[in-house]
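Example is below:
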Amino acid sequence: MVKQLMRSASLVGANVIEAKNSSSRIEFKRYYEIVLKSCNESKYWICLLRDGFELKDEILDKIIKEADELSKILAASVIKLKQTSNKTGK
């Protein structure tokens, strides 16, 4: 589980960097969709670790809350990018 968490969490940052360097708006949007999925997956693994090992840790709860907030921000960004793409046809 820890390896899965490390993989998904590291993909968040890596794909944000890739999005910044994307060559088109479509590619940028696609990277942000991947970032959102990786963020949600990371949140899943953290919750699984917490619940599976019955960890009652305030730090884990704060991390999960931060991941949830980040997911909401990313989801709003992806929705906005999709709306903009639909209007411009890109």
